[in-house]
Amino acid sequence: MTKHIFITGGVVSSLGKGITAASIAMLLKQRGYTVAMQKMDPYLNVDPGTMSPYQHGEVYVTEDGTETDLDLGHYERFAGITCNRSSNFTTGKIYSNVIRKEREGGYLGKTVQVIPHVTDEIKKCIRELDGNDIDIAITEIGGTAGDIESHPFLEAIRQFSHEAGTENVIFIHLTLVPYIKAAGEMKTKPSQQSVGILREIGIIPDILICRCERPMTEEHFEKLSLFCNIKRKYVIEEQDVKNSIYEVPTELAKQRLDHFIIEIFNLRHNELDLQKWNKMLNSVINPQNGSIEIAVVGKYISLKDAYKSIYEALYHGGIANDIEVNVRMIEAEELEGQTAESLLSGVSGILVPGGFGHRGIEGKIKAVQFARENNIPFFGICLGMHCASIEFLRNVCNYTDAHSSEFNYQTKNPVIHLMEEQKNIKDKGGTMRLGAYKCGIKSGTKTAEAYGEKMISERHRHRYEFNSEYITVFKENGMEITGINPDKDLVEIIELIEHPWFIACQFHPEFKSSPLKSHPLFRDFIKASFKYSQS
Ligand code: GLN
To answer: Per residue of the chain (535 residues), what is the pLDDT tens digit?
Structure first.
């Protein structure tokens, strides 16, 4: 029978619940348990796919093409879990299921209500994680205890625990123990009150994890234990980590969090093996090859979370090469009014990530041109590949009006155009080309050198694609097509042959990178950038 862990948050948002959940999953997996994970998001959007990155940060795409919360990225990166449709539910998705069932007459004349119908639907979604092959399922409840919109989720997990048997469920509450500068003290009251809110609903946390900037004293632990009704040893501290978020699991393991979870569930005791993880951390903390700077030229630069997986994948590329990677974030729009040198000189590599909308496009194209002409390693992803294609057709092949029909639908040279199957689609939510597709790799290229495989699979999220009418002129001018979708003949990767490293792809490799296994394209991009920095 699958055991369930529910992780709730209290006091404030942005405590790193996703990272904590992912760290717990990673530790349990290292102990030899099979783990599944999911996140419940209390907002009304059916999924985050239609939300602005400014609102929500990055939209993370799973293998099966679900557009999800970026916390799922942590789940996959930390714990190597493959997320899918059952890994992210929002209030919007839950309500659409309930309303669809009501329209089908599925409630047999009953008045449809939040309790029991919405809570039943939530429990059904939680049970999607159950399975013979899953020892432990972890569900993270988004939002903060006390939010009106999280209430049905909290009620549902209370009911779930009652029905599954309390011995099969652990509630972990993550709170903040703030340091009040003026008083020179850390305060436990907000955590006590947050646990109080859960108690009103009927949830008593088994484990309390306290985020804090400074170490807690024994007095803090005792106080929280007594007033929150939690055993002293189950009050865990999660201090801000010094070097890397990948230190969180090891810090939690030092306090034996994983051991306590196994103890409460009464599961067989397997040893924890952190050898590989610690080796990885060592190269994060003491990189042997110094540091390099990579420019990321994007549109949502002011928001750290908007390119979360890109930054992480660059970081992983650094780990693979024993190099510290620093990112210079550049607003593409700013590049439009300035010379490329003024903002880009000194960097060892340039990356243009995915994106939507016209703002900053010419700045991104300028960044591509600067990388191409100065032999600086370049990596274009999705919209970044579109920009690389426009730049090449304009400045190398002399089709000066080349553009993407996403931005100029009247151009005579739409090197990027709307995919055939997208032409009659009106709805915006969940209708892009999404999820994993195969791609055949051309041998004898840097793309092939990176992958070391003839057929790969990568995740997509886009409506526009490379216009195959331009394949010949690209090849004639030195831009090779190095990745092709075998079923639909779509161009997926382009590579400039006479350049130290210039690769752009239609898919999002950043979603498949992890600290223990850097994505090969990111690994080789960083390798080439390091080489450039030495030259
Ligand atoms: N806006 C482009 C498209 O829809 C690129 C999308 C992306 O970069 N994810 O095709």
So the answer is: 899 999 999 999 889 999 999 999 999 999 999 999 999 999 999 989 988 888 889 999 999 999 999 999 999 999 999 999 999 999 999 999 999 999 999 999 999 999 999 999 999 999 999 987 999 999 999 999 999 999 999 999 999 999 999 999 999 999 999 999 999 999 999 999 999 999 999 999 999 999 999 999 999 999 999 999 999 999 999 999 998 999 999 999 999 999 999 999 999 988 999 999 999 999 999 999 999 999 999 999 888 899 999 999 999 999 999 999 999 999 999 999 999 999 999 999 999 999 999 999 999 999 999 999 999 999 999 999 999 999 999 999 999 999 999 999 899 999 999 988 888 888 888 888 999 999 999 999 999 999 999 999 999 999 999 999 999 999 999 999 999 999 999 999 999 999 999 999 999 999 999 999 999 999 999 999 999 999 9
Residues 103, 57: Cα–Cα separation, whole Å = 34
355 lines ligand 1 (CB under 6 A): yes
Q: d(Cα 391, Cα 502) in Å, to the nearest integer? A: 13
Residues taking part in catalysis: 382, 508, 510
Residue 328 token pair = 């210079």
Query: How many C-beta atoms surround the C-beta of residue 409 within 10 A?
Result: 11
CA of 504 relative to ligand 1 center, distance in Å: 13
Find the 251 Cα to ligand 1 centroid distance in Å.
38
Report the 10 Å Cβ neighbour count for 485.
Answer: 18
The residue type at 305? D
383: Cβ below 6 Å to ligand 1? yes
Q: Which atom of ligand 1 is nearest to the CA of 461?
A: 9
Q: 492 is written with which tokens? A: 């997926």
Query: For the chain, what is the total number of helices (H) and then of strands (E)?
Result: 19, 23
Q: Is 462 in the pocket of ligand 1 (CB under 6 A)?
A: yes
**How far away, in angstroms, is 303 Cα from ligand 1 center?**
19
Residues 8 and 6: their CA atoms lie apart, in Å, by 6
Spatial distance between the Cα atoms of 489 and 216, rounded to a whole number of angstroms:
59
Q: Residue 474 belongs to what H/E stretch?
A: helix 471-476
Radius of gyration, CA atoms only, the chain: 25
ω into 42 cis (within 30 of 0): no
